[in-house]
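Try this one yourself first.
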């Protein structure tokens, strides 16, 4: 899943203060009833807002299974950790894609 790649790498990236603020704002915007947590549906909307795609059922199930059973959803700190890991994985795959493209001789051949 998308977390495994980020875990495998050493942590070299930290969110900027502006990114962190944006994530908190998205959390608050998606927590419409001010419950203090994101429900399953709230989380889906947050992912769309931050990453531009609707997460799969499997991805949401994975995240929701990690939620403390004493809470009804994802608390702010948990959400921030999830987003941070997802951003790390996204940056990792962007690096891999960039390196692959640089070494892909087929793309550099004139037709």
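Now uncover the answer:
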């Amino acid at each position: 899943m998308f977390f495994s790649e980020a875990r495998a790498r050493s942590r070299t990236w930290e969110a900027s203060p502006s990114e962190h603020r944006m994530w908190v704002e998205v959390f608050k915007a998606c927590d419409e009833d001010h419950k203090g947590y994101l429900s399953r549906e709230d989380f889906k909307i947050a992912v769309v807002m931050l990453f531009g795609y609707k997460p799969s059922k499997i991805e949401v199930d994975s995240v929701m299974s990690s939620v403390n059973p004493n809470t009804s959803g994802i608390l702010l700190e948990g959400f921030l950790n999830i987003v941070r890991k997802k951003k790390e994985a996204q940056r990792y795959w962007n690096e891999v894609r960039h390196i692959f493209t640089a070494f892909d001789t087929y793309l550099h051949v004139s037709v």
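Discussion: The mean pLDDT is 81. The chain has six helices and two strands.
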